[in-house]
Specification:
This protein is α+β, with helices and mostly antiparallel strands and 139 residues long. The protein has 2 domains: 31 residues; 95 residues, Nucleic acid-binding proteins (OB fold (Dihydrolipoamide Acetyltransferase, E2P)). The protein is built from 3 helices and 7 strands; from the N terminus they run αβαββββββα. A 5-stranded mixed β-barrel has the order 2-4-5-7-6. Strand 3 and strand 4 form a beta hairpin. The longest helix has 28 residues.
Amino acid sequence: MRRTTVKFIIGGVILLSAAAYLAYAGMKEGWVSYHLQVDDFLSNPKYQGERVRLCGQVALEGLVSNPGRLRAEFTLLGKTQRLPVVYSGVIPDLFKGGREVVVEGRRDTSGVFQANLMMMKCASKYQSAEHTQKAGKTS
């Protein structure tokens, strides 16, 4: 083979390897499970340091919400465990203590979950049709 052909092959392999690595790194950051319960997250060490979505209830005590500064600090409650959360971003209008919330982010070395995405769960969307009909009859 000619020298220029070898150079093109080596250059192509390097470019292809770099593109494959960048694609893998980008997809790895975006791979997030649908959502975990707080108890499952805290009890499984494989999730520590990984980006995940957590579902839980916002504790009434310790809730500090500052929409003007785009920051909220609260405790996310599981069935038996709790996790401190610091959220940075636009705070949803429905955000308050006692509500179900899904947050996305990762736990830092100090044990605080650093979230940059928050979604409120709307209770009416998750009630069964039978429950909704019963509620309508009592009103």
